[in-house]
Design brief:
By secondary structure, the protein is α/β, with parallel strands linked by helices. 48% of the residues lie in helices and 15% in strands. Helix 6 packs across helix 18, helix 7 crosses helix 8 and helix 9 crosses helix 17. The structure holds NADPH dihydro-nicotinamide-adenine-dinucleotide phosphate.
């Protein structure tokens, strides 16, 4: 690991001491602190007002019991979380994750990342995140509905269009947002569209929100390519995961002339040299909620590999779109050996610190999630704008807004990297640009 300067080292030690056992949170904080040396050297005012120390402590953390009844009549208990991390720029904004691995450390890492990501979009949104250790896999619609209703029965008192606006994440898509919104409306007797984003198109949702994170990631890579006089044309692309982000990243790659040859889920991966058939993938994942392994039943010249690593498949561009720490040092070494030139994180923190260092050493261009996947939350902010003005925009208009936003984030990363002596370093640029905007707002608002 690079050595932190003394002040940042003290802050990191304090984070470790105050948040024991929260490894993912430590990792996310460390990644940001590693970039901030030149910023604190140039701006002593941030240190004087303890801006970084305050940023590392969430404004509010809510942990609650979620009791619900399964189809067999058994009472089940899950744990719910909402971490309202920072509201200097606007109401807390960030998704809900339903996955058995969720605990406070995961929610805090995601909430912390969200602060900088939201800041990078240039939109008025603070950072937060939530979720539960509930596992929706294998649950009936009725069970998912009862769980969502129980979850919202506590969450509703903490959220609101001007307070905290949750959205989806792993395990939370359109179906879950529907059940959550229904329960919020029932309890509060208010049709408050702006309280959740990712809603259905007929009841307050925005065009392009479903596609936004994946499309946005690919728009970001398109900018990276353009900056080097290149394009997606003819590129071999590997995407990990086969959920919301992965599917729509693959769709946009195809539209821009690239070929996605592999995708995965937590059991294995599928390789289709002719290009992943997206209609088939959507049918498997969105309609049938089945496993990626079933892909080869319909496309017999594709192959499925149980277990193993999707990063063993040679590609020009790698888009990790599944989950945190899914791409490790070994995977990174394989990608480098196979000639991969660009890695962009569609997921949040999918690359381990080892992997990120390897990419830097090998000259592989690396776009961190807080920049590359910010299109999802940015389009959520566009959904909030439409809700506030009781308007609804066309697909084309919304997609153009998304593309402009990603272009802006790309340029902001490069400008900040250049200004602080790290030319071409998207990771440093994203951390610095995201940080400075929040830090300045925190200074302006006083010690609160
Ligand atoms: P989904 O639940 O739609 O899909 C997640 C995908 O990742 C599934 O294919 C899942 O496979 C796979 N996956 C999950 N855990 C693992 C694992 N341990 N190993 C391998 N694969 C795994 O989630 P999203 O697509 O919404 O989210 C994916 C990532 O993108 C997350 O990191 C999320 O935080 C991030 N993100 C999402 C945004 C959004 O708008 N949805 C916005 C910004 C970031 P399986 O079915 O086997 O679990």
């Amino acid at each position: 690991m690079p050595i932190l300067d003394e002040k940042l080292g003290d802050i990191y030690d304090e984070v470790l001491r105050r948040n024991p056992g929260e490894d993912e949170f430590h990792q996310a904080v460390r990644e940001v602190l590693d970039s901030l040396g030149p910023v604190v050297a140039k701006h002593p005012e941030y240190g004087d007002a303890a801006v970084i120390r305050r940023l590392c402590e969430p404004e509010r953390q809510i942990i609650f019991r979620v009791p619900w009844v399964d189809d067999a009549g058994n009472v089940r208990i899950n744990r719910g979380f909402r971490v309202e991390f920072n509201s200097a720029l606007g109401p807390y904004k960030g998704g809900l994750r339903f996955h058995p691995s969720v605990y406070l450390g995961i929610v805090k890492f995601l909430g912390f990342e969200q602060i900088f990501k939201n800041s990078l979009t240039g939109m008025p949104i603070g950072g937060g995140k939530g979720g539960s250790d509930f596992d929706p896999k294998g649950r009936s619609d009725g069970e998912v509905m009862r769980f969502c209703q129980a979850f919202m029965t506590e969450l509703y008192r903490h959220i609101g269009e001007h307070t905290d606006v949750p959205a989806g994440d792993i395990g939370v898509g359109g179906r879950e947002i529907g059940y959550l919104f229904g329960q919020y409306k029932r309890i509060t007797n208010r049709y408050e569209s702006g309280v959740l984003t990712g809603k259905g198109l007929t009841w307050g949702g925005s065009q392009v929100r479903t596609e936004a994170t994946g499309y946005g990631t690919v728009f970001f890579v398109e900018e990276m390519l353009k900056a080097r006089g290149d394009s997606f044309d003819g590129k071999r692309v590997v995407v990990s995961g086969s959920g919301n982000v992965a599917i729509y990243a693959a769709e946009k790659v195809r539209q821009l002339g690239g070929t996605v040859i592999a995708c995965s889920d937590s059991n294995g991966y599928v390789v289709d040299e002719k290009g992943i058939d997206l209609d088939l993938l959507k049918d498997i994942k969105e309609k049938r909620r089945a496993r990626v392994s079933t892909y080869v039943e319909a496309r017999t010249d594709a192959r499925y590999v149980e277990g193993g690593s999707v990063w063993d498949v040679a590609c020009d561009v790698a888009l990790p779109c599944a989950t945190q720490n899914e791409l490790n040092g070994r995977d990174a070494a394989t990608l480098v050996k196979n000639g991969c030139a660009i890695v962009a994180e569609g997921a949040n923190m999918p690359c381990t610190p080892d992997a990120v260092r390897l990419f830097a050493d090998a000259g592989v261009l690396f776009a961190p999630g807080k920049a590359a996947n910010a299109g999802g939350v940015a389009t959520s902010a566009l959904e909030m704008q439409q809700n506030a003005s009781r308007d609804s925009w066309s697909f084309d208009h919304t997609e153009r807004r998304l593309a402009d936003i990603m272009h802006g984030i790309h340029d902001r990363c490069l400008e900040s990297a250049e200004l602080y002596g790290k030319p071409g370093n998207y990771l440093a640029g994203a951390n610095i640009a995201g940080f400075i905007q929040v830090a300045d707002a925190m200074l302006a608002l006083g010690v609160i």
